Structure formats: structure tokens, C-alpha cells
């Protein structure tokens, strides 16, 4: 069976559709079509197989220098900012957990600058956040110390309304 194509059993209808669609939208020389078919077949053959690692990752900055007092630095590209989470998702398509795993960092490795975390923590405490509900209202002052607030319209407005 020397005349049979090499990839006869590997999704022939799907490969045909992909090649036909590609050729209808791109200028392809006739001598390039066999390589295109082989490329699509190789892609199908490699689906589901683990990819080979590209080599050891080299960080943009040393891991020890990635966390500074006022900033954190992205190991992927060297970007420096107060928080990494948004940068990682928009620029690299990574979640914080994926980033930590990718660089073999501990789960408690900061993705936010320490100074910024302290500022946000202080603000949250001042606002009373994180206490499991509202705090009891402060005890009211004794009745004799402060004048009682008036209800209704001020007297000057009420007097003007009667005079009209």
C-alpha cells in the first residue's frame, strides 16, 4: 500500500474543510498545499499530547527583588506597580494562582505592595469593614447636656408662611 496517503485515518473530512476554508481566504501557491495538509494533520495528531516545556523560565528580575516596600514587579515582563493581579490578567492572561504556580512561588507570596496593603487595611478598619456586621451605635449623650433637635420647619420660615 505504498500509494496510500500517510494520514488517511486522521479526520479526513475535517482536514478537508479546514484546508478548503484556508485556501478560499488566503493566496496559496499550488506547491504549498501539500505542506499545508501535512501541517494540519500534524496538528490533529498532536492534540491531547502534553507539550514539551520550552525550557527554564527566566524572570525579568530576581525573585527576591520582585517585592519592594512600595511596589511589586512582574516576573514575566518587569512591569512595576502597586498591584499585580489586574496586570497579570490583562497583559499575560494569568490569574494570581497561575502566576504563582508558573514561577514556583509560595501561595503567600505578595501580589500587592506591602505599603499599599497597609494603607488599604487601615482605611478598611477606619470604615468598620470586616467586623462581621455593624457595630453597636455609640451610647447617646445624657438628655441634659445637649439641646434637643427641633422637628419641622424653622420658626423663621413658619412665621413668614403665617404672615402671607
Low-confidence stretches: none
Count, helices: 6
| CATH superfamily annotation of the domain at 63-114 | ROS/MUCR transcriptional regulator protein
Mean pLDDT across the residues is 82
Strands side by side in the biggest sheet:
1-2
**Secondary-structure element series:** HHEEHHHH
User: Could you say what the CATH topology of the domain at 63-114 is called?
Assistant: Arc Repressor Mutant, subunit A
Largest sheet: 2 strands, antiparallel
The geometry reads as: elongated
Strand fraction equals under 5%
Helix content: 40-55%
Strands, total number: 2
Q: Distance N terminus to C terminus?
A: 112 Å
Can you describe this structure?
The protein is an all-alpha fold and 164 residues long. Among the domains are: 12-46, no CATH class; 63-114, ROS/MUCR transcriptional regulator protein (Arc Repressor Mutant, subunit A). The chain is 40% helix and 2% strand. The protein has helices at 12-25, 33-46, 85-92, 96-102, 114-127, 155-163, and strands at residues 72-73, 80-81. It has a two-stranded antiparallel ribbon. 6% of the residues are buried. The model has no long low-confidence stretch (mean pLDDT 82).
Features:
about 160 residues, Arc Repressor Mutant, subunit A, two-stranded antiparallel sheet
Topology, element by element:
Elements: H1 12-25, H2 33-46, E1 72-73, E2 80-81, H3 85-92, H4 96-102, H5 114-127, H6 155-163
Antiparallel strand pairs: 1-2
Summed up:
This protein has 164 residues and is mostly helical. Helix content is 40%, strand content 2%. Among the domains are: 12-46, no CATH class; 63-114, Arc Repressor Mutant, subunit A.
